[in-house]
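haha ok so turns out i had the wrong file open the whole time. this is the CORRECT one, sorry everyone. sequence first:
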Amino acid sequence: EKVVHHHEEALRAVYVWQLPVRFYHWINALCIVALSITGYIIGNPPALQSAAEASFSYWFGTTRLIHFIFAYIFFFNFLVRIYWGFVGNRFANWRNYIP
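then structure:
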């Protein structure tokens, strides 16, 4: 004989975090990883010697460019999150974080 619990039937999944908040967290994580890697390379550059023309191996400038691009993405992503704190649902609202 199978016992059915009626209270289990009433359970349903509730998504607390809206899609913009989820995007914010993933973009934030990607930016932190990229900024960490490029920041380490900028702070402790490897000593590479090459016989090629300097303009052909502009890798350090490219590393700095990638670093700055991710820094701007990180900054504007944070501005979007602040905005979403005012227009998002009750879970994303800033009033939840202020005691």
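The CA atoms of residues 85 and 98 lie 12 Å apart.
again sry for the mixup
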